[in-house]
């Protein structure tokens, strides 16, 4: 058993920003950062386009950024959260600049600002076409200087420890469910360990690997969302999966696709169909700079009309010097497969990119489980609503990492816990006033109870005899989600998807109960849970809104609400 003051699960921009802040605030406290791969293998690393921020008030304004975000979110954004992120964003961006992140500048020293789909002004800061990688580098360098931050790599979190593991009945109606820490599979030893923490932050990233083709790395398997759902925490808006309109199409390539950043269209790239027609004007007056949900559906429609597997992104009118300066990695990638962007158009197709829903949090990043915070892509803060505005994700991660830091450190040393004698899963008798809205600033109960948390029990399990049982189920899951729960959906497809997921879940749970745990099995289990949540949310939403388009309900309903599971 290990104990720590702060446990951070995930090493992207959200997790590292939080870890750095709490380590600075409490140099005598221990901060433990866990990742199932290496420190820099995160969704942040693959963020190309940039970070949206208003830091040029002569040509831009907070209100314009707020309005752009609300329009993209299609009626489901939390207006208060949008204002928080937009107005607190400049200070957070300045912090990471102070930590060493470098954004591209003009010759006069001012920042170069790009424009992407849905934005009314040029406000996107970037570092070439590897903005996320640059921000990740700066954070890792800053974290390395903190003596009280410890990294544990190659560890897979199995489950969040709650009262359930102490023998109490815990369900969705149980008040005051609390997090004590996590069970972890050490990939180097193969053993399950328990790590107890006063405060746990989930920054586990997205879930793009649920689909056959995604811009996300292989680690993006929705682990945090699945764990919180199993722990009876609240999850919302999982039906809103953003498909990036322009992933590089390579025949036969599955899994992670190379992203062609939206900034290419912001600089003048034109989408063309198989006949060479610039088609976006038929779908939206903003043409190639319409929000991502509109562009992705337009591309999907053109592909189905022509029976092709991709459309084209035309950059032939760009100067080579301009393109290679702003997008050097895209240029090199295209050249490596025989595409010279000055002579050839780039084949592109939509790919699963970002989850707008996730672990439901309030405006301070608090989940519905005591001591458990969430930020970054795994969280649903209310910023994105039904569709994320381009380049808002890195900004959201930094703002909410700061707010999680502010709130969790304020409640690190609460009064002695008081145990209810009449509990049914309720451990904290006088903590009934917590509300997810954040309107009640109740004190977070201490984790405590560590001595009662049992070790992991693996008795009766054996090594799986055939890995094909896992790999084939993963292929089936990705096929079902891509074919039935993609850009365009309908009730029949969703019903079929649910029936197939039910069978996959039953087979995988049997394997989980009888087999020794492996990262492949744990990821499959998590992805099936995430797939179920996406389908369930999509089935409940009897309308088309933002990223969710159901041909059986092509219009919007009058009842605007979030789907909480």
Model description:
The chain has helices spanning 13-25, 62-73, 79-98, 131-144, 223-230, 263-266, 292-306, 320-326, 328-336, 393-410, 468-484, 491-514, 519-540, and strands at residues 2-9, 31-34, 51-52, 124-125, 149-152, 155-161, 181-186, 192-202, 213-214, 235-236, 241-248, 255-256, 270-272, 311-314, 346-355, 358-360, 372-374, 379-380, 488-489, 549-550. The protein has 565 residues and is of the alpha/beta class. Strands 1, 2, 5, 6, 7, 8 and 17 form a seven-stranded mixed sheet that branches. Strand 7 and strand 8 form a beta hairpin. The longest helix has 24 residues, at 491-514. The protein is globular.
- What is the approximate shape? globular
How many structurally independent domains?
Answer: 3
What level of helicity do the residues show? 25-40%
What is the CATH class designation of the largest domain? Alpha Beta
Can you tell me the CATH superfamily of the largest domain?
FAD/NAD(P)-binding domain
Taken as a percent bin, the fraction of beta residues is 15-25%
Largest sheet: 7 strands, mixed
- Count of alpha and pi helical runs: 13
Mean pLDDT: 88
* CA gyration radius, whole angstroms: 23 Å
At CATH level 2, the architecture of the largest domain is 3-Layer(bba) Sandwich
- Low-pLDDT segments, ≥5 res: 415-450
Strand tally: 20
